[in-house]
Design goal:
This protein is of the alpha+beta class. The protein has seven helices and three strands.
């Protein structure tokens, strides 16, 4: 097979996968999963160890914690959480934070 023909259609696998995810509407869900996986890095090990559940629904981050003291502290710092997560995602992936 001629190498020049073969190289003309090549593109990085990342670009192909990104285009496929976007075409099927899965790119936002993947970014949500990346944010959840990065929670310990974004908020630190103390917060991550006290977090029992973390999910994103309709641009709302829902956090369940096993420490009422830490929950109160984080409630006071909601804007910091919003800023860190949206900076990490590169766009406004969440607009509010709820605690339960």
């Amino acid at each position: 097979m001629n190498e020049s023909k073969r190289n003309s259609n090549e593109e990085p696998l990342k670009d192909v996968v990104d285009r496929w995810l976007k075409a099927y509407g899965l790119d936002k869900k993947m970014k949500e999963m990346e944010v959840i996986a990065a929670w310990p890095e974004l908020m630190g090990p103390a917060v991550a160890n006290r977090t029992t559940e973390l999910l994103i629904r309709n641009k709302v981050l829902i956090i369940r914690m096993d420490s009422s003291v830490m929950r109160e502290e984080l409630m006071n710092g909601k804007s910091i959480i919003l800023h860190r997560i949206n900076d990490f995602a590169g766009y406004e992936i969440i607009c509010d934070v709820w605690f339960s």
